[in-house]
Amino acid sequence: MSLRIVTHCYARELPQYAAFLRHQMQALDRLADSDYHLPVVLSVCCTAFDVPTWKAVHEWMKSPGQKAFTLNIVCLPEGELWRRSIGRNKIALSCTEDFVWFADVDYLPTMEFIRGIHEEFPSQAAMIYPNEIWIQKTHELGDQLASGERPHILWKLDFERKHYSRAVGGVQIVRGELARKIGYLNNNEKWQRPVAEPFKSFRDDLAFRRECRKHGQVVGVDLPELYRLRHTKTTYQGST
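RE: above sequence
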């Protein structure tokens, strides 16, 4: 079984996102310490001129130690990057993995979480999402981590449980077969149109949930040990 993780990183204006990408890649590299080995590909959507993001990527590539996942860089024009559904759609249509997780850069997966995707995906489901995650207790903790003031994550001490009642945009998980069939809003002109401002709307996740319901259930599942970083400043300007 194999997994594709799709994430976006735009750190030209807020370098904290590059710091979060570092932590996401480090979290995935911890998979090498597990006896449960699964092929994982991390697709990072970014732009050609985003220096902080490329610096994070190059640092990971040059870092010593075993690489536990394959890194796939998807370089997009800014207008396409800022419409999150465009990058997700390109990757969904071309992926070859058994499962696809449409993630955000502030999520830190563990092997327990990834193993849960493979073992707990109901046969009748078109999409699953975790019923519960661990989220940092304060936004300031994430700011300190991104700035280097707090160089290490204190697992469980820094985090508290958070319940999800729906498949928000960073925890949408589908089978690869469905992703290749429908993409990510592939036939929706609005959500495949580039935009002029960074991440003006994230309501594409709502539209994609509705699309997936045409093919099966959208189900919350008990998937353990997924962590999310918090931060006070965001690139996006809100939803329209």
